[in-house]
Amino acid sequence: KDFDLVIRNGTIVTSSDIFSGDIGIKRGEIKELGRNLSERAEDVYDAKGKYIFPGGIDAHTHLDMPFGGTFSSDDFNTGTKAAAIGGTTTIVDFAVQPQGKTLNETIEMWREKADGNACIDYGLHLAITQMNDKTREEIPQVIRDGYSSFKVFMIYEGMMVDDLTFMEVLDIASENNGLISVHAENPFVIDYFTKKLLESGKTAPKYHEISRPAYCEGEATNRAISLAKMTNAPLYVVHCSCEESASEIKKAREEGFPIMGETCPQYLLLSRDNYEEEGFNGAKYVMSPPLRDKKNWNYLWKALNDGVLQTVATDHCPFFMKQKRMGLDDFTKIPNGAPGIELRMALMYSYGVDKGNISIEKFVQLTSTNVAKIFGLYPKKGSIVVGGDADLMIFDPEKKVKISKDILHENVDYTPYEELELKGYPVATFSRGELIAEDGEYIGSENRGEFIKRSGPKII
Ligand code: DUC
Ligand code: ZN
Ligand code: ZN
Ligand code: ZN
């Protein structure tokens, strides 16, 4: 037989086209796109009435991530299973360089967490926390080894770098065809407001947001972009939460600089009002950057539509409420982060495509194709093309779901999207031609995910 599997009768949607037809798959790759391929297949999956999208690529996850004396509660096994059920077939997680460790030691630590655990394919970004002769020497080597993107934190004790180090990372990584991403907030602003708040007894979760206003993100984004301009480096700004940061990207792009940006479903769908939830429940939404005023939603949708922002990732970084309670008397001790890895595709379809905020092709661009291009995975991943991996999400646009934590598989005891209504939900996920999730359950083989060496970025 020509194919191990044919997925027939679906409506195939890519970043630029919609057509109905069959997908012929052999040894995990797409071999043919056409009609009436079923007879030449060992196995047939009928996708009648369903959309077939390129599998989601989430380029911003924190699995098994040390933070504030604890660890994010999804590891590479539980987190990638939840991702798979939600239609995501590739993640790029952050390996954060511990103080005193080399980049190669950092890689070893994170590969130990991921290898033999992950159930979908994965890459790693390297978060550089210190610059020395060893780091300078390692950057070109790790890029050659497939770690082609880096992150710089402008905040967080133990992770943040100063502008000097940031510039050097930009300079060296870009010279070697690496891409630098940045978490942009100003740590001095946060310290200043935090001290004042705590001194006046303002310790509740909602003060997290008040301690780091939108200008704090806007200023840092402007500074990061300025450093990138001066070093002729491309830059990718992660998790833009507001107009103050996204407008800096817009301006730089209009000037012709290779600056790109990401937002996340939480900044499009949730707001600072969530911090008003009763008791300590506001802690569910303590993440950085924080949720903003609702008025930013429209700006961010428009930025996605206009190509100012190119991707939507999750920043998935879950903590159980018991972990969040470390900050019961002091919001600065609440571990930062929230879950989202399982719902990204469904949320972006329902609130993006179904509600008319984005086109269906734009949905594919934001959740898969653009991500693959920017992070050196394209065209193996991020599209539905002959020769590409058969990473596919089968999606029922009519399926109605009311979100509750009980239907999710993330290893955490809440979802920030509780009670939101969805129209459209993933019903099956294929990774390299293997059916790994169906109807809300992971059914793939264990630990089947493979590490992916990534090439340099395509600037879009
Ligand atoms: N922000 C979070 O909310 N969690 C982890 C890291 C980050 O930058
Ligand atoms: Zn961040
Ligand atoms: Zn993050
Ligand atoms: Zn289940």
From TrEMBL:
Recorded GO molecular functions are: dihydropyrimidinase activity; metal ion binding
Which Enzyme Commission number(s) are listed?
3.5.2.2
* InterPro entries hit by this protein: Amidohydro-rel (IPR006680), Hydantoinase/dihydroPyrase (IPR011778), Metal-dep_hydrolase_composite (IPR011059), Metal_Hydrolase (IPR032466), Metallo-dep_Hydrolases_sf (IPR050378)
The known PTMs are summarized as: Carbamylation allows a single lysine to coordinate two divalent metal cations.
**Does Transport appear among the keywords?**
no
Where does the Amidohydrolase-related domain lie?
Answer: 51-435
Family to which this protein belongs: Belongs to the metallo-dependent hydrolases superfamily. Hydantoinase/dihydropyrimidinase family.
**Record-given protein name:** Dihydropyrimidinase
> In which organism is this protein found?
Anaerosalibacter massiliensis
